Amino acid sequence: LSYGGKYCKRFQSLDTPKAHKGIQLSNQGIVWRDRTLRCLQDDLIIGMEVAKSCSAINEIGFNSHSSCYTLPGSSICDLSAEDLFSIARVVDGIEYFTYNALKQMTEVASTCAPTWLKEKLDAMAHLKSTHTGFVRTGIKVNIYEKKIKSLDKKIKLVEELSKNNGGGDFK
């Protein structure tokens, strides 16, 4: 529980003046955090009722992370690239290279990647459809170009997490 308690406190601080490392989340990020923390707590309470040992409780806690992170209606997949980067900075860098963390990242990435790819392809199709000869409709183009850049940032963050050698925190 000390592991979970440490990160719970860090995440709860993110909408306060004493936020961990000064990290802030958007309003959508705060909603995601609150729903995710509640989901993790509920799963842990249920797990404590059925688990026979501390290691079983620990396993239940870790195994619930991916599904809690990607809850329908409040999924990490729907957050901005800025929120994803902020969330990544809350966790100590070395933690990303434990078995449980790598498993969770793989599960979350396999949930988010198809959504992000579809969004990127849709944005690119919309961008292409805004071309009329050599003239582009400026506002629509700008919106879709921003969406593509945001999706690229999300994908790059996942790539950086997988390449990082565990040498420290994200800055």
Features:
171 residues; mainly alpha; two-stranded antiparallel sheet; 4 strands
Fold and architecture overview:
By secondary structure, this protein is mainly alpha-helical. It contains 6 helices and 4 strands. The strands form 2 sheets. A two-stranded antiparallel sheet has the order 1-2.
Show the helix and strand layout.
Blueprint: H1 2-12, H2 27-50, H3 54-69, E1 70-71, E2 74-75, H4 81-90, H5 99-129, E3 131-132, E4 135-136, H6 138-163
Antiparallel strand pairs: 1-2, 3-4
Helix pairs in contact: 2-3, 3-5, 4-6, 5-6
Describe, in short, the structure shown.
The protein is mainly α and 171 residues long.
Spatial ordering of strands, largest sheet: 1-2
Quick check: average pLDDT? 83
Discrete helix count? 6
Estimate percent helicity: 55-70%
Which outline best applies?
A: globular
Distance between the termini: 27 Å
